[in-house]
Amino acid sequence: MKDNNIKLSELTDISWLKEHYFSNPAQKITLKKGETILKQGEKNDCIFYLVSGRLTGHYKPKGGSQLLIFSTGEDSVVGIYSFFSADGCSYTTVNAEEDATVYYMSKAELPAKNHPDHQLFSEHILPIIVNEIYLRQMLVVKNATEKEITLKKLMQSEKLATLGQLAAGLAHELNNAIGVLQNKTQWLTNQLKVIFNQKEYEHLYPLFIKGLEQGQHSSTADARKRKEHIKKALKIDDRLAKKLARIDLTDEEIRQIAKQNQVDKIEEMDGFWEMGMTLHDMEIASTHTTHVIRSIKDLGSQNHSDVQECDLRLTFKKSLSLLSNMTRNIQIDLDVEKGLTLIGNEGDFIQIWVNLIKNAAESLSQAETKDPRIQLLYVPNPHSIHLQVIDNGPGIPAHLLPTIFQPNVTTKVSGLSFGLGLGLSIIQKIISSYGGNITVSSVPGHTSFDITLPKT
Predict the structure, then answer these.
(1) Tens digits of per-residue pLDDT, 147-206?
(2) Is beta strand 331-335 parallel, antiparallel or unpaired with respect to 373-379?
């Protein structure tokens, strides 16, 4: 389709043609809206100059639907192709889109080759012919471009539909498997509670429960500081102090260990705490996986279940528990104040942080960034909750930033980060469903995902 809004008078001087061929009142036609001046396939030996109104040309392929080829307004010509073509047939049906006035000239008026006006006619009609050729070429290019864009959209649509089917199938299979793991974890936890809650384990049972309920509670930095304090208090080596430090014992508990001379039981204490902590992480991981699966299923819906008041700092800590192996060599700075809450689904927030922290950790690891660091920050704002996930990795390529939240876009060379490049797309959808938004800025050494959520 073309919309020819360029006036001939802007391209060439047509005053000579108008004076000699398009001004005879006897060759003036007034068209009412909807009237036809040319029919597709019919002979035409006239050029029409449109003085006012608008004409449209339609082409209808055999067995196909009618296509709009052009729409042209005043100070333009119609019929050039059929006038000069060998078969002399119009390839479109031309109608008045609105009331129109045209002047026409016929082939019978063409000056003879030996007439002085022949040269003048040629000189004045040639720019119009060239313009018509140009417009037809542009039409071909435009149609080809639109066809290519449509084809790409169709392919993308089919690809996403296939991915959706694949995701639904995976979700079904994973849901069954994770259900077994979740139930068995709960069963094992209950069994161990019964076994450890006996007299012979009474000094170790609280540590098991502590690990079970809190998981790895201390940050890496806090554990380092605590370790030095414990080393001095109990006069033990670095390895044992490190084990006690991660349990996050109180000063009174440390004193009791010293008082009861239980230094030789530190390994055992650590083992019971770690069993509890492992079950804690397994429960979080299975719950999180269940939530991810549900998110895939709910990708096209607005469904929030299990809504409650969520401690955002706790959701960050649970996310870090899930990613502890991946982030063990990365400095994590968690600066989200205690007591910062939001009404929502805890799993939604964990899923957001897990995706962003995981992406950052993978980027830092792949780039072998020196002194890798991830900051999880709360930025005070009177009107909303503003959180940031920042890393000092290589950054996101500039050409990917505009599409980073679209499905099937990934910065990873290989792989399915859930494999489908859906991670950021899903978390944007989750954040949007809470009335918030997420933006990203990135330069080498500083990539920041900024999440803004309305206060509740």
Answers:
(1) 888 888 888 777 767 766 777 777 777 888 888 888 999 999 999 999 999 988 888 999
(2) parallel
The two three-digit tokens of residue 156, written as one number: 């993308």
* 313, 219 Cβ separation under 8 angstroms: no
Question: Each residue of 54-76: pLDDT tens digit?
Answer: 999 999 988 888 888 888 889 88
User: Which among 367, 417, 361, 414 is positioned nearest to 389, based on CA atoms?
Assistant: 361
SS in 3 state form for the chain?
CEEECCCHHHHCCCHHHHHHHCCCHHHEEEECCCCEEECCCCECCEEEEEEEEEEEEEECCCCCCCEEEEEECCCEEECHHHHHCCCCECCCEEEEEEEEEEEEEEHHHCCCCCCHHHHHHHHHHHHHHHHHHHHHHHHHHHHHHHHHHHHHHHHHHHHHHHHHHHHHHHHHHHHHHHHHHHHHHHHHHHHHHHHHCCHHHCCCHHHHHHHHHHCCCCCHHHHHHHHHHHHHHHCCCHHHHHHHHHHCCCHHHHHHHHHCCCHHHHHHHHHHHHHHHHHHHHHHHHHHHHHHHHHHHCCCCCCCCCCEEEEHHHHHHHHHHHCCCCCCCCEEEEECCCCCEEEECHHHHHHHHHHHHHHHHHHHHHCCCCCCEEEEEEECCCCEEEEEEEECCCCCCHHHHHHCCCCCCCCCCCCCCCCCCCHHHHHHHHHHHCCCEEEEEEECCEEEEEEEEECC
List all residues 6 or more positions away from 27 whose beta carbon is below 8 Å from its beta carbon. 103, 104, 105
Residue 265 CB-density burial (10 A; 0-12 exposed, 13-18 middle, 19+ buried): middle
Which tens digits make up the pLDDT trace of 9-24? 676 778 888 999 999 9
Q: What is the pTM of this model?
A: 0.49
**pLDDT above 80: residue 289:** yes
CB 327, CB 373: distance < 8 Å:
no
